[in-house]
Specification:
Length: about 230
C-alpha cells in the first residue's frame, strides 16, 4: 500500500462532514454501506457518497464489494484503511493482544465455561444502561447491533407461524436472534470454544441482568449450525 501523504490526509479530514463519516467508520466493527452511514448521521446518501470517494482517493478508506444493494448492483462497503491514522481509537495492536490473551487462556486450559463466566460479567455491565428499555429482546438486539453482529430476529416456531405474523417474538414470548455477522470471526475460527463461550456468556449475562427473560439453544461455530440464540420471556 502506498504511503499516505499527510497534507492530503489533513485536507480530507478538514471537512466536518468527512471527519464525522471517518469517525463513524473508525468506531464500527464492520465495513459500512453508504446508506448505513447516511442513516446514522442523518444525511442523504448522495451527500455521503462523494465524501467517501474523496477519502478513498487519499488512502484513508478501503472498499469491500459484495452482496446486492437495493437496485441489484454489488454493494460497496467502506472501512478504515490499515495505514490510516487512528485518531485515538483502537490501535492495531489490540487484535494482536486479543490473540495472545486467547492463546494464554488456552495454554492455561481455560474451558468454554470459564470464558462464559467472563462474558457474563461483561454482559451484565452492558445491560445496565438499558434498564428502561421496553423489552429485553429490544435491548439485546440493539446492543448486539452496536457490537457488529447484525442481529436478525425471527419466530422461534416458524412452522406454526401464520402468514400475517411479523418477525419477532412468538405467542409464547420466544424469539430467535440469528447473527448475520460475527465481529469475532477470525478469533473464533482459531479458538472456537473460548470465543464462542465469551459470546454465550455475554448474552446470558445481559439477559439475566435485564431480569425478565431467559436464553436457550445457543448455537455457535462449534454447533455446526448458523450462530443464533433463543430468548424467551419468563
Amino acid at each position: 500500500m502506498e504511503t499516505l501523504v499527510p497534507l492530503d490526509v489533513l485536507k480530507a479530514l478538514g471537512d466536518n462532514t468527512r471527519y464525522a463519516i471517518y469517525l463513524e467508520l473508525a468506531r464500527s466493527s464492520r465495513p459500512l454501506a453508504t446508506s448505513d452511514i447516511a442513516a446514522t448521521l442523518g444525511l442523504h446518501a448522495n451527500t455521503v457518497r462523494p465524501h467517501l470517494e474523496r477519502m478513498r482517493d487519499v488512502g484513508l478508506l478501503e472498499v469491500h464489494v459484495g452482496g446486492r444493494g437495493d437496485v441489484g448492483r454489488p454493494q460497496h462497503r467502506y472501512a478504515i484503511a490499515e495505514s490510516a491514522p487512528l485518531l485515538g481509537l483502537e490501535p492495531p495492536t489490540t487484535p494482536v493482544l486479543a490473540k495472545m490473551v486467547l492463546s494464554m487462556a488456552k495454554r492455561l486450559q481455560a474451558s468454554s465455561d470459564d470464558a462464559a463466566a467472563v462474558g457474563d460479567e461483561e454482559g451484565r455491565r452492558r445491560a445496565r444502561p438499558y434498564a428502561e428499555a421496553p423489552s429485553t429482546l429490544e435491548a439485546l438486539v440493539s446492543d448486539l447491533d452496536k457490537l457488529g453482529f447484525d442481529p436478525v430476529v425471527a419466530d422461534a416456531h416458524p412452522a406454526t407461524q401464520s402468514a400475517t405474523h411479523a418477525d419477532g417474538p412468538d405467542d409464547d414470548g420466544s424469539a430467535v436472534i440469528a447473527f448475520a455477522n460475527c465481529p469475532f470471526a477470525e478469533l473464533a475460527r482459531e479458538h472456537p470454544e473460548l470465543v464462542c463461550g465469551l459470546h454465550r456468556g455475554l448474552i446470558e449475562g445481559f439477559v439475566d441482568e435485564m431480569g425478565d427473560a431467559t436464553t436457550r439453544d445457543f448455537a455457535t461455530l462449534t454447533s455446526r449450525t448458523p450462530c443464533r440464540v433463543t430468548v424467551s420471556a419468563r
